[in-house]
Queue: 4 jobs
Job 1
Amino acid sequence: MKKIALIAATLTALYAIPTHAQTEAKKTPNGQYVSIGPVAGVGLNWVGNMVGNNMTVMSGNLGIGLIYARNEHWGWGGQLMVSSEGYDVKYNGTEVKAIPLYLRMPLRAYYFFGDYRNTIRPKLYAGPTLGLKLSETDDMNGRNTEVMAYNNTGTFRTFDLGVNVGTGVNIKLAKAIWLNLDLVYNQGLLDVVDDPADNYNTNQNLSFSAGLLFGLK
């Protein structure tokens, strides 16, 4: 009887450990719940395989971010934002700049370092990014503008698809309030410029963003 009682007590204790851990995780900020809030960023954008001297243009984005932290280390989420991108090229004395405005949605799988008790949580993430062009502004100046426009440049297509990878930190400011700092690189996969030269031109972007995310229980 003593052996049976001992076995029963041991099994009860083993069962209680994970149950207690799950309960604590649900009470812990950024553990098994959704956080959402505003996000803004700035960076540099360029388009690959353009003819001439391809320069970067300043880019910016503004939107809303969301993270679902499934457990202590893994999470899923993304952003929905309006993003200004584009290209700036010089060729044979002519400069052409095209700035599209995208509705962009990067999706991400997150890995968080450290544990729930840390005020600063480094992270890595990656995933696809989708883009829908809302508008576009084009500007051309210099000599031979008609030849330059016809042979080498063009307007952006309506849709874009790519991948985004990044790193950053989440800093706990208060209970269930996190400052998210991110450095992210976006690599397009589709030919986004409809140009007579028929080159395969992909969007490329390196940006820094900051967001203030609030936990929803």
Job 2
Amino acid sequence: MAIDAVELAKKIENEDEKTYIIGTLIGISDKFLTEEYKNKLKRVIRMTKIAEMLIQEGKAEGKVEGKL
């Protein structure tokens, strides 16, 4: 159901609403899904703005750690 919910959320035109809903689904799902379903959900989320934001954040943190 979480994967279906993310697929539906990806169709929302308002980017702020879409990001909020997908983020909420990620937060809730983390506590209740098995690792198998978390990996499936990760594949579905990979092409969303949230995934893009997390990737950019990880890159920025890596650069800071690299400088240290």
Job 3
Amino acid sequence: MPEGIQIRRLEVFGEREVQGLSDVLIDCVEGGASVSFMLPMTRDKAHSFWSKAAESAARGERMIFVAEDSSGAILGTVQLLMDQPENQPHRGDISKMLVHRRARRLGLGAALLTAAEQAALNAGKTVLVLDTASEDAERLYRRQGWQYCGRIPDYALMPDGAFCDTHVFYKLLAPGST
């Protein structure tokens, strides 16, 4: 990872953080990422999403991690969804793994994922799950030790409206495994 990049958990969300997260989300959706949003990807949609995510984080339902450069600009993010049904207190979901196109292939995704995995383990989570429609993300997850479960055809839509498959992964966490 380049010098000056920091991975941290966001615990306070001001307008600067919401705007930085919105910039990353907009860039990813405009770049074709299937992450729950359709084109056109407006700043209002992104701002609303991150404002709600910040409220959820404040309630302890999720943890949000960011990769920032030395100026504090947010280059990437990942979420650990903690709020699970009562029969799954040991499970967490990885969601919205996003890295701005200008900062890809620098190790930010792996560092964000490692931070989320360690936080999950520290919180008593021993099973993590995620899904992705991205081949690049699939390669990252496999390199990070995630196990492939399978493909679900026509699971969602790409931002342009085309159907896309999703690929499901899981990882069992044990002390020292992240």
Job 4
Amino acid sequence: MARHETTPSQTVGPYLHIGLPWPDGPFAVAEGTPEGVWIRGVLYDGAGAPVPDGLIETWQADPEGRFNHPDDPRGAVERPGFRAFGRCPTDANGEYGIFTLKPGPVPGPGGRLQAPHIDVSVFARGMLHRTVTRVYFPEEAAANAADPVLSSVPEPERATLVARPAEDGYRFDIRLQGEDETVFFDV
């Protein structure tokens, strides 16, 4: 059987910083916004090593649980200064950070409210497609317990979706494989 080496066109990374720049980068709101929080973490590979050439994207509702998007069933609502989107490459230590506002609850399947969460896409070397996960907030215990998506994830894996409090916001490490692998959704 012939063996063929992988070419750059067959893998996503390490070319993310070339092909996916974003002018506002990690700032879903302007730096220094009073109610802004950081979501920071490290992207780890299956061996537990930091991934220095990954890319983290976030998409979320505003603090009232609204989207400035025509698909919001309640109608698009613009919040000046809030983009709802952030993109941050990982650094040499696999670290990333997104500065944003904590989202509010949004409608979910069957009209049930979903707990406040942030959708996260992960791009990294060796992956042909992004992986998608969510960040939930630890102080939202009742909303998290009732969330139709989060409650569909069995324990103890559910814990991989809940951020930890940090001095300037939240900590959310992402593990692509292996022990304590982050739960990813098939979207």
